[in-house]
Amino acid sequence: MADQPVTLAAIIGAHGIGGEVRLKLFAEGPESLARHKTVHVGDRTLTLKSVKAGGGAPIARFAEITDRAAAEALRGELMTVHRSALPPLEAGEYYHADLIGLPCQDAEGHPLGTVVAVENFGAGDILEIEKPGGKTAMVPFRKGIADLAEGRIIVDPEFLA
Fold it and tell me: How confident is the model at residue 70, as a pLDDT?
C-alpha cells in the first residue's frame, strides 16, 4: 500500500509561455502539493518548483518543463505521489485513496459490494459502492450509515436501495 500511487491533480493545460501548467486539484489545496519535491506525471518523475493559486485552477511549475510546448504535452496527465509520501494521519482520519477498493458488508457480514469512488459535493464524503451485478449506489460516509471498521465498510443496507 505504501507504493500505491495517489492522484493529487490532473494537468488541464499550459499556462503562459514559460512551462507552467494549470491543474485540476484532487488534494486539499495548492499548499498541500507544495510539500512534495518530486511528483510522477505519466511515466516521468518531475521536480515541483512551485505551486500557486490561480484564477479557477492552481498553477504549477516543474524544473524539467521550460516552455509552453512541453507544458501543453502534459495535458491530460495525472500528477501522483506514492502513498508513503503523504503526511501521517491522526486517529479517525483517512485518505480517500485508502477507502477505494474496500469491501462493504452489512452488520452481519454479508457482502454488499465494493467502494469504487469517494465524492464530496460540499456536505461530506459520499461513497460510491458497486453492488454485486454491477449497479452502483451512493451512500453518505456517516456514522451509523457507513462506518470504517477493520479494513471494510459496514453499511446500513437501507441506503443501498
Answer: 96
